[in-house]
Amino acid sequence: MSLTDYQPPRYPTNLLQKDWSKRKLHYRTDRLEYIRKVHDVEVLPDDVWLVTLPKCGTTWMQELLWLVMNDFDFETAKKEHLEIRSPYMEFDYMVNNDLENCFRPIEQLSRPRLIKTHLSLPLLPHQIWDKKPKVVYVARNIKDAIVSEYYHARNVGAFTDKSLDDYVREEIEGTKLHDPFLHLTEFYALRHEPWLYYTSFERMKMNLRQVILDVCGFLNKSIDESTMEKMLKHLSFEEMKKNPKTNHVWEFQQVRAKHGLPAEGQEFNFIRKGEMNGYKQELSPEVVQKVDDWVERNLKELNITLDELLLLENTKA
């Protein structure tokens, strides 16, 4: 995959005071026209935008948000694929390469819209910085996310000849498309803004009830105890794992068809393990050490700890 240095027409200087001229951005060379068009996407005042790095509890939070925004309509949630109810903005162009119609899935959504994206802060539609709709950001331990990305890629036919250790080694030594550390720290710096709710996969694992309450408060919605119990069951790992509407079956079928693969035949369930610190059991000790050093080195340069980013600094004994 070829990447090109990219400079957007504007940076979010009204949100963060930093030297944006030193903020390195790069995007896929074959999708530069697309990312330029993203800059001017129309944002509606009642939108909710869900922003994460890949494999960071995105689907979990997406289902949670959709239910809160739609009066806990569990019946519809069980009938319709999540990615149709709440599109991933980058997906349509990724599959169809149609620059003219690539935003149609989000434009045709009924309001209020819930839109998912993996883009970093300076690559988002600039109207998000100006209009400040509701934005939800979910962080996750990068070490777990990178392992999960490997299995996700295998499901669409990539890296079938590459071991997990080799994949992770190459990822941390090469250029990252998503600039994970800046992606995380720029949203972390905005965590006290009233229009942004910042949480982590780890917080969701440790206290899902509280995160549901937080989201309801953030979106000005109320929830009674009976509905809370339904939410906790519906959003449990066991239920999410076996629910075809939250395992991106619809998306996988399109991607696999694009690559000439049979519609069925995923190696792994999209919702696979959902563990904290699972990377330690999946990687060799040598690669675990490499990943730990990589994260520590990068976060030291940014003067922040992983526990701070994951909102765990006050949970340790």
SSE arrangement:
Layout: E1 3-5, E2 26-28, H1 32-38, E3 48-52, H2 58-69, H3 74-79, H4 82-85, H5 91-96, H6 104-107, E4 114-117, H7 126-131, E5 134-139, H8 142-155, H9 164-173, H10 180-188, E6 196-200, H11 201-206, H12 208-218, H13 225-234, H14 237-242, H15 249-258, H16 279-282, H17 285-301, H18 306-309
Parallel strand pairs: 3-4, 3-5, 5-6
Antiparallel strand pairs: 1-2
Helix pairs in contact: 8-9, 9-17
Main sheet specs:
4 strands, parallel
Helix content: 40-55%
Helix vs. strand class: alpha/beta
Low-confidence stretches: 266-270
Structure in words:
- The protein is built from 18 helices and 6 strands.
- It has 317 residues and is an alpha/beta fold.
- The strands form 2 sheets. It has a 4-stranded parallel β-sheet with strand order 4-3-5-6, with helices on both faces. Strands 1-2 form a two-stranded antiparallel sheet.
- Helix 8 (142-155) crosses helix 9 (164-173).
- The longest helix is centred in the C-terminal third of the chain and has 17 residues, at 285-301.
- The radius of gyration is 19 Å and the shape is globular.
- The model is unreliable at 266-270 (pLDDT under 50).
